[in-house]
């Protein structure tokens, strides 16, 4: 593994620090400690790009059967568990050059899965474009199984996607679809290499990470009209070295960021009542450590413009909460579930009568250790007749006897904690993907930090700590409020 930071990343972090300092300056600091001291803590936790060498990528991917010469690496539970991934997803990565005047197409087949997409990124790992499954027209004679009401098992299911360079792509901002040629994903212009990711969410049971499909096959047409594909394309254009990149804080820096002077909660940054914070941009998320401290008002003044995180996707919105099981043996989360398609069992039709394409809960660690210990996606969470769920997060030793599907309860293991010597800590993250046009109570409808509960209404997942004995007293099936 190699460590380092591109010049662009340094510039981005410098601007991030400037914005944070300006925000803090707008709020008169308490006499002690000073705002500048708090800013020093945040600076210490500034994440850095950590690229992996080609040798390390080969070592991690060896024997997994997930990659080829174009799709050189994966983020997944079995390979690179980094960047807070959803464990129901495999993320394939390609890094390649595009010669002057060349054109690249990807020829593939739609997987049997909940969702598939392509995403492109700038050198900082910020998403600049995305092309989701339902926006990809099928080849002549084929069927797109992801469109609402489509036959999911129909054959044939082939597609072709064009990869095209485009100037003035903005990080985290969707391309105007009216300007997009059919089946085209854009990459930034003027870069030495381009990064393209393929995501496959929740493949049908028994079909493997690709949902029974093969990896999309690249074909490059050079300026002189000649075509290159297969090993020849990979030898000439694919750059495996540093194709997989983490983005993390140092352990000492992350721990220093948690040590905000004057924090009122005993196990800060986790609060006695967990507080969900919608993701707007990386700095605002880092500054959530200022909640319930003398500096919380400074966070409230910070820029809340939505910008995706490092290697995020434009099709998901997120919220997260720091947690610590010293507040209670169990973390219990209850709410109403948005409707999603049922697909895991090879369902024949892509249900159109839904609220979201996908949702999940995951237990993660920290910005130093971006691994995720466990996740549950929508279909894995039992629901009652009112579409409500109860989720319990705990260590295996504290798992209640009635925290099982037969009792109407989903259980998520606590894992290793925060990955920084605190086995009690970490965070939970909640994802909402692709809301239906008429569904207005998703994270996509939030407008500002703090409006999550009001916007989601009955779909807001209410978290609370509880003793194991008290939860077991609720019986089986578990009595719900």
UniProtKB/TrEMBL annotation:
Keywords attached to this entry: Signal
Superkingdom of origin: Bacteria
Signal sequence interval, chain numbering: 1-25
Protein's UniProt name: DUF2961 domain-containing protein
Organism: Ideonella azotifigens
Lineage summary: Bacteria, Pseudomonadati, Pseudomonadota, Betaproteobacteria, Burkholderiales
């Amino acid at each position: 593994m190699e460590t380092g930071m591109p010049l662009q990343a340094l510039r981005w972090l410098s601007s991030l620090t400037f914005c944070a300092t300006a925000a803090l300056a707008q709020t008169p600091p308490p006499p002690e400690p000073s705002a500048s001291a708090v800013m020093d803590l945040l600076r210490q936790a500034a994440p850095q790009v950590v690229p992996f060498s080609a040798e390390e990528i080969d070592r991690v991917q060896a024997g997994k059967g997930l990659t080829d010469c174009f799709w050189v690496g994966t983020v997944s539970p079995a390979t690179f568990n980094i960047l807070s991934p959803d464990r129901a997803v495999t993320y394939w990565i390609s890094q390649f050059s595009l010669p002057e005047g060349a054109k690249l197409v990807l020829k593939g087949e739609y997987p049997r899965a909940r969702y598939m997409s392509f995403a492109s990124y700038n050198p900082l790992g910020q998403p600049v474009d995305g092309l989701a499954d339902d926006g990809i027209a099928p080849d002549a004679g084929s069927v797109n199984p992801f469109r609402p009401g489509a036959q999911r098992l129909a054959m044939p299911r082939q597609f072709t996607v064009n990869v095209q360079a485009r100037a003035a792509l903005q990080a985290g901002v969707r391309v105007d679809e009216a300007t997009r040629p059919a089946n085209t994903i854009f990459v930034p212009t003027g870069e030495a290499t381009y990064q393209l990711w393929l995501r496959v969410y929740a493949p049908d049971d028994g079909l493997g990470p690709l949902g029974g499909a093969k990896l999309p096959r690249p074909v490059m047409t050079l300026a002189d009209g000649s075509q290159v594909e297969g090993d020849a394309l990979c030898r000439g254009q694919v750059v495996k070295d540093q194709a997989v990149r983490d983005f993390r804080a140092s352990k000492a820096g992350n721990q220093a960021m948690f040590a905000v002077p004057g924090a009122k909660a005993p196990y800060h940054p986790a609060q006695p009542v967990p507080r969900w914070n919608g993701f707007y941009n990386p700095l605002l998320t880092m500054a959530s450590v200022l909640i319930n401290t003398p500096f919380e008002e400074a966070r409230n003044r910070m820029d809340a413009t939505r910008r995706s995180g490092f290697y995020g996707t434009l099709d998901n919105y997120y919220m997260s909460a720091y947690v610590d099981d010293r507040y209670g043996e169990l973390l219990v989360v209850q709410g109403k579930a948005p409707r999603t398609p049922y697909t895991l069992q090879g369902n024949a039709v892509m249900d159109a009568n839904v609220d979201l394409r996908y949702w999940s809960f995951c237990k993660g660690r920290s910005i130093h250790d971006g691994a995720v210990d466990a996740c549950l996606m929508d279909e894995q969470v039992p629901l009652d007749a009112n579409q409500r769920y109860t989720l319990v997060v705990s260590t295996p030793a504290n798992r209640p006897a009635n925290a099982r599907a037969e009792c109407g309860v989903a259980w998520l293991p606590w894992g290793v904690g925060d990955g920084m010597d605190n086995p009690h800590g970490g965070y939970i993250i909640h994802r909402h993907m692709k809301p239906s046009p008429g569904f207005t109570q998703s994270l996509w409808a939030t407008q500002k930090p703090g409006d999550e509960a009001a916007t989601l209404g009955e779909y807001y997942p209410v978290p609370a700590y509880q003793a194991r004995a008290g939860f077991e007293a609720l019986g089986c099936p578990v009595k719900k409020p």
